[in-house]
């Protein structure tokens, strides 16, 4: 197990930004930068032992600063969407930045994905190596109440797992919902339509045209959202009910966020790579990079086409702060928010 650090680049104001490289003896490598606490690269061997980068990202900080679709970043203070960019909490209405049409998305105009986080590498143990990222969000930032402190611990294990542990506190009641927005491609390039997905989810949350949940929870049975049996992503991607082909749906996990449990399993037939996602969260957003169009070139000169990656964003449900029947996202003073997600890799 090893950990190295170097300067990834500089912010416009001259602030240096570090990047960390975590390695295990089985050939897995994770690169994580202080900017947005972003996973920039994740290398895992295929069934023949050949290395491959399985996430979308960039080689340099400047490219991230020019804008990107949340590649590998921590999204917050509230990941996903809040309808009409507002909510009422303890009798007071709060207006948020509207950065997705009339709605609020992934924390607003300057969410946690655009912050320079403080980092602390932790001593390597016999079976793992880790780096801790922390950020502070001021009361009123992007419209949210309360001073919030968030710590994210990234741990690479010798079992080819990347574990993400979240811990947050606030001095005033506030909604919180954090996720890592990595785009995976287990083949390393091309589209992900031949990837095969299984989800531990019998239900999903239907949405309106703006992708805001209606408040209903429906069965996936008989729909293109039924991944209770392993199915190729491209088998029914034109039948999802969205305006354009592809998936961008929140699934209600069967374990209900009560414990760390298997949420999803993805296989890529040619490389043999397998990704399992475990989480303590009650939901997962499955997104197939419907917004990519081939105009972005990433790490190693790889072009990112439409459906060039998939996200499994472990989370509370979108717009939960405005949906009393959804699991609560409100964090109160003297409470500690804790959540864990694990990305586990193997070959078949």
Reported for the largest beta sheet, the result is:
9 strands, antiparallel
CATH topology: Beta-galactosidase, Chain A, domain 5
> Which architecture does the CATH hierarchy give at level 2?
Distorted Sandwich
Helix content: under 10%
Task: Name the CATH class.
Answer: Mainly Beta
* Assembly level: single chain
Tally of helical runs: 1
Strand order of the largest sheet: 10-11-12-13-28-22-21-16-19
Low-confidence stretches: none
Describe the structure.
There is one protein chain. Strands 10-11-12-13-28-22-21-16-19 form a nine-stranded antiparallel beta sheet, with no helix packed on it. Strand 12 (148-157) and strand 13 form a beta hairpin. The two termini are 24 Å apart. Helices cover 1% and strands 39% of the residues. The chain has one helix at residues 61-65, and strands spanning 2-10, 16-23, 29-33, 39-43, 74-75, 81-82, 86-89, 92-95, 104-105, 118-122, 128-137, 148-157, 161-170, 174-175, 179-180, 196-199, 203-204, 218-219, 231-232, 248-252, 261-267, 273-279, 283-287, 296-297, 303-304, 311-315, 330-331, 337-347. The protein has one domain: Beta-galactosidase, Chain A, domain 5 (Distorted Sandwich).
